[in-house]
Model the fold of this input.
Amino acid sequence: MAIDMIKFTRGVPPPISFPTERLISITTDLLKNESSTLLQYGNSYGYFPLREMIASQFQVDVDRVVLGQGSLQLLDHLLRIEKEKLPSICIEEPTYDRTITIFNRAKAKLTGIPITSDGFDGSYFEKMLAGRKEIDYLYIIPDFQNPSGTIMDLDTRKRIIELAKQHNYLIIEDSPYRRLRYEGEDIPSCFEISPDNVIHMSSFSKLVCPGLRVGFMILPANLAKQVAKIAEDTYINPSFLNQALVFRFSSGGFLDEHLIILKNLYNTRRQAMFQALDDRMADLGEWTKPKGGFFVGLTLSRKVEISSLMKAASSKGLQLTDGRGFFIHGGETFIRLPFCALTPAQIQQGISRLQSTILSLEKT
Amino acid sequence: MAIDMIKFTRGVPPPISFPTERLISITTDLLKNESSTLLQYGNSYGYFPLREMIASQFQVDVDRVVLGQGSLQLLDHLLRIEKEKLPSICIEEPTYDRTITIFNRAKAKLTGIPITSDGFDGSYFEKMLAGRKEIDYLYIIPDFQNPSGTIMDLDTRKRIIELAKQHNYLIIEDSPYRRLRYEGEDIPSCFEISPDNVIHMSSFSKLVCPGLRVGFMILPANLAKQVAKIAEDTYINPSFLNQALVFRFSSGGFLDEHLIILKNLYNTRRQAMFQALDDRMADLGEWTKPKGGFFVGLTLSRKVEISSLMKAASSKGLQLTDGRGFFIHGGETFIRLPFCALTPAQIQQGISRLQSTILSLEKT
Done:
């Protein structure tokens, strides 16, 4: 008998979290009142009211805000700006695999800075920076990092900003999970601390739903202009209907209400993940205890052959992502555990299957 | 007193052509029934039912069909596929300015093939091809060309396909206007004549509305896979909600009805453009008589300084596009006249302003 596959793979939200009814009423109203704008070509920076709303929230001029079909696309555009030399970029290691792909496609020179269980290793970064030539960007996910679930502490945030001023690099702060905190208090974002040294990017994929494909980037106005030009030259403009939906959902106060529902739902699942790991994995690895976001980062205590692990897991009804995708080098013992899209029962079952897979491999 | 600006600039449809009421009812139904798919992440090839519909219309396997945020974006992706050498591409001259930008950004070596009032100059192309090394792509807009309004005749279509087989290049056939024919009978598309030598691209921007940003490309399966990979690595997937709207609008029979309305509306405007040109421009230039699409291509009989012309026109309440944007070299006497988004009265007024602008420049 076929067993239901449990997926510890991508960071997707569960369909039950989508605010479908509200989106239906908003769409109807939008198309009735704004169809001549929303169904027409538009400006490549994106739908103006949503840009204005974000500019107001982040207290910046609106010409610093660009909207895209997700924020990853805008990162791609940023890297496509013509430069005399190939970019040199520091990334956290592990980091979001799709970003590594974007940077590799731009032929960037990448240097990894270790993520420990306390987050970004600031002193490693500082030593690295002292011993070499300048970098263009430092890419970080300071809040509930993908894939590790860690947080960058306030002192480190302040320190990398000081270093940015000295060494003249821009921090790219990717913050899609920042508003999904399940315990503790917000730490100021790097952008809040120093908006001129930081490119802040985020999206509504984890807050409203991914399918609308709406993300944004706040960057120096001259770079924003170049990113918007690349957008125009590639697809004229992103869909305003989708961006208007997000705008109305946010500005109408529905997003704030919705975040309360999401946090309750995801926190229950996070607790279930912690419990399952405590019950099953204590002898087999160490894991982070994220205070928000989508992921627990698990590091196995012994090296396993990752493709054998994935294959064996699959035969037990468990799909895993290859941990090496999150690293420049290494990652053989790393497993990303997304918990938001699974029920507590599925999480328990999934971790149980992971345990038995590892134990079965150790026997052979 | 300020006069209303008349714009002979971009090829945009008029908002009155948008099927707003129908889109409202379709969206409501879609979100009620498919939100778990449409609001979620999806496959980077695009929304499957729309891909299937297009595959069936074009009688190809579905794995040859990729959907994008407009078709231009897919052309960008095609050019981003890693190759050992920079691409060599023949284009019509004049051609769509945004395509020239895409090709230049890919550092393609471009060769222009003249468009005459009878369309693509096949014998020029054949001679050019005989005397030089191979090309990778021939990019054409055979039906109601942008910006000239011309048609490529059937013999030329057959000939460039024969040459494609001999010289091993792919034809990129861009056909956003093909279904907007106001007189005469369809000529088989290059894709219909020989689907293995042709990449066919089109969009729903001119048939439903631009704002949904839905276009498609049909290409050899191995290239489709690479284009979809670039899409995935850039924005994961295009918005399925928008693509599902187009699918339901088309598969429900509403598109066929809508095309009848559009053709009536646009044909009236085309006739008004012809009349205005006959009345005002007979001594000043020559123009094409397009049987479909969005544009009349006007060539002035004397060279004018294009930036002076644009400036003088603007002061008379007429906005023009710089004709040089449609050419690799030259284009100083070329004016693209889009007629679909203007009323007959605006068209008449616009051509009257163009006439008086040119006459005033000749006097100085």
In short: The longest strand of chain A covers residues 109-116. Chain A has two domains: 6-17+256-363, 20-252.
